[in-house]
Amino acid sequence: MHSLSEFFTHPWPIAAVAGVAMLVEFISGWLSDDDTHDLKETAASLTIAVINKTVGALTAGVTAVPLIWLHQFALFDIPASNPAALVAAFFLTDLCYYWHHYAMHKVRLLWASHSVHHSPTRLNLTAAVRLGLGGHVAGGFLFYAPLVLIGFSPLVIYGMLALGLIYQLFLHPAHAPDLGPLEYVLNTPKHHHVHHASNTECLDKNFGGVFIIFDRMFGTYAEAPDNEPLRFGLKAADMNTNNPVVILFHEWTAIIRDAVASRSVAAAFRAIFSMKRKPKRDAA
């Protein structure tokens, strides 16, 4: 438990490694005249990352309250000091993340936050930190509630989520290497490039966080198409922007606008939750 607490209170080494990796990738692309970055898009991603981390730090306690409250009803008390329990927690948290990520693409209220991450037109390490706001407040925490009710500490679950997100940062390099046999078990840059791609064959595929085995099990796995290059970004007409505020709140404002314009409770419900109303990813 002490190590998990240190992980949350001293994140700077991880941030430093991530920053250096982003800088190295950017310089490498620039020196080789490789079109891996767009300066304005990169600046927007880094600005959004600062906003996300600032809001996250201010609201961390609020988003943790529901799981802390649920923990009093846990069936068991699983000790955080047990190595086997920690391994199980990591694996099960990634399974819950798979379904959470799946829902982000299927429920408009969750897509409002997640669409921010899919908005870059170039995939690189700076795009990895382009993360939206409000995901857990919109109900994201519910996907991890079963683990808390089983008996895992909310701190352990949040710790495993954080480890998974650190791993996922490095799934976004501009060029994806082939990792051989690991491709069958782990979520890798090759798999995650497919997830971000807006090609028709790639839409809503490869939801895994650390592992790809859940996609293989549940039928959401896909490989890159052989006959066309991968394309990235959103199709919404007014998303051709690098304004961080527009990127962050575009879909939230669209949901509010559609809900207010609805003529019935059922229509308002559809405006908030139905995927038919979300801005389509560019599959042209």
Distance between the termini: 49 Å
Q: Supply Rg.
A: 19 Å
How large is the count of helical segments?
11
Q: Give me the secondary-structure category.
A: mainly alpha
The whole-number mean of residue pLDDT values reads 90
H/E element string?
A: HHHHHHHHHHH
Strand content: under 5%
Shape call = globular
Which tags fit this structure?
single chain; 284 residues; mainly alpha; 54% helix
Characterization of the model:
- By secondary structure, the chain is an all-alpha fold.
- The protein has one domain.
- It has helices spanning 2-9, 12-31, 39-70, 83-104, 108-114, 145-150, 154-169, 189-196, 213-218, 244-261, 265-273.
- The radius of gyration is 19 Å and the shape is globular.
- The model has no long low-confidence stretch (mean pLDDT 90).
Would you spell out the secondary-structure blueprint of this structure?
Layout (H helix, E strand, L loop, with lengths): L1 H8 L2 H20 L7 H32 L12 H22 L3 H7 L30 H6 L3 H16 L19 H8 L16 H6 L25 H18 L3 H9 L11
Helix pairs in contact: 4-7, 5-10, 10-11
Provide a short characterization of the protein structure:
By secondary structure, the chain is an all-alpha fold. It has 11 helices and no strands.
